[in-house]
Amino acid sequence: IVSGSRSSKTFKPKKNIPEGSHQYELLKHAEATLGSGNLRQAVMLPEGEDLNEWIAVNTVDFFNQINMLYGTITEFCTESSCPVMSAGPRYEYHWADGTNIKKPIKCSAPKYIDYLMTWVQDQLDDETLFPSKIGVPFPKNFMSVAKTILKRLFRVYAHIYHQHFDSVMRLQEEAHLNTSFKHFIFFVQ
């Protein structure tokens, strides 16, 4: 197995928020608040904003961040080094998307993360779930979809911390990983 072909497959294209859109303005607000260094303040819903839209913008942002972070360590996360998707001996994750794979399957970490990132990308690209046009309402199940996405993205952080933190430190990316994870945890709380 050539890891090059797998890593390029696992690393998903960045999900862009159209410039000039309301979501773009929200993202810029989030980035500006993040720049203040106060992560607790950065995750707060801006006054007068729609909660669903705020969650959507941040979910896209976390997807992009995790995608980028995992992309830097794909060469260390292989079928042989990570035959099971886990975050230590007590946390093993099996994949099911409810559509193509209904019964959870045991798979390697790179396979699981590829399934996961592809699945998240599909959710984010679905205009009925994540409408990009202003005035198009979010579906009634939006909150539960967003929670599932965030719960699954957490597993990638958990795997990186548990299995690959030494690589992250060798690459001198621990500050970036820690800030991203702290921001993520404040947001989901």
Automatic annotation (TrEMBL):
Molecular function terms from GO: kinase activity
Pfam families recorded: Mob1_phocein
InterPro entries xrefs: MOB_kinase_act_fam (IPR005301), MOB_kinase_act_sf (IPR036703)
Keyword check for Metal-binding: yes
Domain of life: Eukaryota
Binding site for Zn(2+): 77, 82, 159, 164
Alphabetically ordered keywords of this record: Kinase, Metal-binding, Transferase, Zinc
Keyword Kinase appears in the UniProt entry: yes
Coiled-coil stretches noted in the UniProt entry, renumbered to this chain: none
Protein's UniProt name: MOB1A kinase
This protein's encoding gene: Mob1a
